[in-house]
TrEMBL record:
Regions crossing the membrane: none
Protein name: Class I SAM-dependent methyltransferase
UniProt organism field: Pseudomaricurvus hydrocarbonicus
Pfam families in the record: Methyltransf_11
GO function terms (MF aspect): S-adenosylmethionine-dependent methyltransferase activity
GO biological process: methylation
Gene3D superfamilies for the chain: Vaccinia Virus protein VP39
Amino acid sequence: MALLDGLSKIKRWAEMRHGPRSSAVTMTSLQGWEKTPLAQAIFTEQKDVMGSLLGELFGYHLLEMSCFDQLQLSDSSRINHKFRITPVAGFDAGALAEFEALPLAPESIDVVILHHVLEYSTKPHQVLREANRVLISRGHLVIVGFNPWSLQGAYKIVAQWVGAGSFWRRRSLRPGRVMDWLHLLDCEPVDLQKGFYRLPINHAGLLEKFSFWEKICSRLKLPFGGFYVLLARKDRVSMIPTKPLWNSFNPVAGLVLGKPTSRVPEAVGQRIECKKVRGKK
């Protein structure tokens, strides 16, 4: 027991020092990072992948949630009403709300985008439940995350301990784990794509030189891409309760009774006449 208590204390200490912080603190510390060469290379590939997916999704309302500012990930979507929700005021004119408690009615959104929200959240399960709650039946959920089984994921382990920056203070959520969470919420994974196979170097010239490697790995569809885009569909069907018509239901025969009638069937009338004749004899 003492050993388990010691390990749990070490784990809590590591999460406090190197794990994700609140969404507001994380987004504030990440503000401006999307303008770096590494961020531009990653987000450009993500937009290309998401462009092909969002172009095939239809509906009336699209909700976008991201820990990064000024990305415009949903530009390729054909849905007219697109809006963002952010926990920090002034982020790209998004509505102010927490990711863990969305101020939206249940089953009111057709497409929900979670762009690097789960790995930077202290409550990823609650964020995913809220996204599933506001999603309509047969609606689609687009999850973008960093792949821990990649060169970037390996570098994150070192970067967290040396204090390289807020960008590396995140969870390691592999796609299979997120799929397990989706199955519990009655969501079916539909498509999974990966991208960014280059080294996570924040240098525009070196990133450009390794673009050939990116093309080769993307063509071969290798599994160790730096990010993944997971498309899932909500398969839960909404059930509308109806009031049973107990007044017209026969519990014995299990049939619906019609209105009583004074007309006697012909066969019954013949049997009655036969009985009367036999009685007279």
